[in-house]
Amino acid sequence: MKNSLDRRIAGELEQFRKDGVYKRLNYLDGPQGPRVRMEGRGEVIILSSNNYLGLSDDPVVVAAGKAALDRFGAGTASVRFICGTFTVHRALEEACARLVGTQASLSFVSCWNANEAAPGTLLGENDIVISDQLNHASIIDGVRLAKAITRCQTAVYRHADLADLEEKLRAAADRRTRLVVTDGVFSMEGAIAKLPELVTLCRKYDAILMVDDSHATGVLGTHGRGTAEHFGLVGEIDIITSTLGKALGGAAGGFVAASAEVCDYLTQRARPQLFSNALPPTVAASALASIEVLEASPDRVARLRDNARYFREQLIALGFRPLPGETPIIPVILGETAAAIRMSEMLLEEGVFVTGFGFPVVPQGQARVRCQISSAHTRQDLDEALAAFRKVGRRLSLI
Predict the structure, then answer these.
(1) Which CATH architecture has domain 19-48+298-395?
(2) Any catalytic annotation for residue 136?
(3) 377 is annotated as an active-site residue
């Protein structure tokens, strides 16, 4: 017998289906790669993965995870401060800090947890956090949580609007700590934060800068060290959060990288870390191996950059108008959510898996299919995907 909540939710789900915005899950039947086996469809080219460096099925990365499973077992069976911290966690955190250019880092079971932990642990009622309008949902929730827990002030500045940010920083002169938070790469647009200007503003107003580099770690900079390396600012960012679930192996996990004092304080006080089991050792080991592969093979980053440039240029040549940018996130704006979902479904019929996004993930009227390129894609992969885009684009009268 359905209760009142079940009935209400069932009605809303039915409306999703009528509006053409219901999201159907596609089940993969093999490892993540440039081509994947999809249940009921066979092999498809994947343009919806965050596997930017092709490391999720890399033999070295997989072998490291298997070895850790044998050495450490399936899991930690405890939270970290009791007896759930293994030596592989320390090695991983040293590697994360080394990669992004900070004194220390602290791992979490996800970057979502990291983004919840930092503001809510580091701020108090005399402080303020100021967030970019288009920041990731995890940052938005982290800011809301910080306000609820600590009663700190919160503010949102218009996306990438430095004048608006400066106005809010000036108005917050009486706050003990001013924390500015931004994505390094904005996941739905592929746009890069104006990091040099943000650093300058934060120094001018004695503010702390926190950058979520989830879509930049392993992607931007000559060696894949992220947004800071892209702008020549390695070592200049106060707090960096990032993920181990995208370019760095793709399994799970995230981290906060900052000064030794900040990371130690989070170890002592961050509730998402204190009351959650640590990363499974196999995940920690595969992420560590991913960082080591990246450090030894920066050519993967160069190949990623070349693949993204080629795909973007060819889409434009076909008559599409992807958002401009220089990252492997290439959104094609279609307008309404139903149109994005429809194009996604038609591309899948042609053997290309690319996801359509609509409201509330993106603003009303800005629905899109978001292409994500990997260094593991071959030119043949990309050309076959482009042929599918041409065919579907013509059928939908988009080109």
Answers:
(1) Alpha-Beta Complex (3.90)
(2) no
(3) no
